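Dear Dr. L.,

I hope this message finds you well. Following up on our conversation about the binding site, I have prepared a predicted three-dimensional model of the protein together with zinc ion. For your records, I am including the exact sequence and ligand specification that went into the calculation, followed by the structure tokens. Please feel free to forward this to your student if that is useful.
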Amino acid sequence: MYCKIWGVRGSLPVPGASTLRYGGNTTCIEVNGHDDECIILDAGTGIFPLGQHLVRTEIKKIHLFITHTHWDHIQGFTMFQPLFSDDVEIHIYGPKDPTSGLTIKDHLTNQMDRHFFPVQLQNVAARLIFEDVSGGDRIQINSLIVKTFEFNHTAINIGYRIDSENRSIIFTGDHEWKLNPHSSDDPRFSNMEQSMRAIRQETINFIKGVDLLIIDSAYTEEEYLTRHGWGHGTLDSSITAAREACAKQVLFTHHDPSRTDDELDKVFRESLERNAINSKDPEFALAKEGMEIKL
Ligand SMILES: [Zn+2]
Ligand SMILES: [Zn+2]
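The resulting structure of the complex is given below.
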């Protein structure tokens, strides 16, 4: 498999001189299989340059997997060039909201309502095929197998694991390790603690032994103190989880938009030092636009 990173920021695109090295686009990852299968994970603004690239290739079938519909994960969809090619087929997968019942098709249609965008989804040239996904699904695309898992976030968020020829990639989408909302003297504390341990174990089991883990690590420990429940992980929580799951290579992503490249380097270095990273640990790096990984 081949993986290329096209967008690494959380929340908001931040172009400019201070984000040139890691990139200013929001989440988008491309994964290709050996038969040129084209999988895209999320449609943040990074999907715009990816789309410009794809229309210059022979690829006519695209599989777009959306983790969830927060803006930074669908913001680039409207300007995804292959939408406007009549010889392209795009399969779009995403979660259906269990509360509102809204599907991925509903959300993307609403995003292109005439109040927000001049071209409506029903009028694009490409052939679109929508599929709702939920945790525990398995989708086969030629030799690639995509498995789904619901990672804890403020909205329903589906993470994807792609397997091919004994190699694997996982992208969590946005994810916060669940916290116990009760204090330890609350009678509900211990039941909640038990159920949270079970959820954590299920999450670790899904990640177990993965070759490449791309994980939401938006915050530092200090920032997280005032951001409980905002739906994101920390650099340290990602290190702990990657160690526990024996991941081989780890990319921290969903970089906070307020962080410059130099600040990113600094918080990354501090986190590695604090956690005493050694040669037995997974290989850790910050996700960077343009980064290519062959597995
Ligand atoms: Zn996000
Ligand atoms: Zn989100």
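In brief: DSSP finds seven helices and 14 strands in the chain.

With kind regards,
A. P.
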